[in-house]
Amino acid sequence: MFQKIEKYIYRLVNYALVLQGIGLIILIGLEVFFRYVIGNALSWPEEVAGIFFIWFTLLGVAAVVREDDHIAFDFLMKHTPPAVGKIIKLFCMLMIQVYAFFLIYQGYSYASMFSFETTPAARINLLWMTLSLPISGLLIIIFSLLKIVGIFKPAERSGS
């Protein structure tokens, strides 16, 4: 059941990444068009694109953890006995969780500190930007916990 929820969350993260990527292209294209074609730059697309980019980056980190595409000690894991490889993978996942806890803790503090600030041109509350830190940290913890469970799960045998 938990894996179905995790797949659903991952699908939502991927949809958000696609929408943010499209949004970034549109916003940057709009800014370039107004600056170089119209000759009168808009002030707000750069701020909104910055917020999109922060969310895009941090949600991307969570997606990378879920897909096991993060930086790891692959060479060591492939050239050591399976038990040592599992220890190395567990160490990597624990380090990722330390990073995620830092994101949650510091991100919450940061969001609380700047929750009443707004961007100068677009007047967007900075809470929308700073919430990306604890939310992505939580997603990273969910995905990495499942990876840790997978380390200790016995390998499935293929029936012949």
Can you walk me through this structure?
With 160 residues, the chain is mainly alpha-helical. The chain has one domain. The chain contains six helices and no strands. The radius of gyration is 20 Å and the shape is elongated.
- Tally of contiguous helical segments: 6
C-alpha termini separation: 28 Å
Q: Tell me the structural class.
A: mainly alpha
Share in helix: over 70%
Q: Give the SSE order as H and E letters.
A: HHHHHH
What's the number of structural domains?
Answer: 1
**Outline, from the CA principal axes?**
elongated
Indicate the mean pLDDT: 89
Strand content: under 5%
Low-confidence stretches: none
Q: How many E strands?
A: 0
Task: Describe how the helices and strands are arranged.
Blueprint: H1 2-38, H2 44-67, H3 74-78, H4 82-113, H5 127-130, H6 132-152
Helix pairs in contact: 1-2, 2-6, 4-6
In a few lines, what is going on in this structure?
The protein is mostly helical. It contains six helices and no strands. The chain has one domain (2-151).
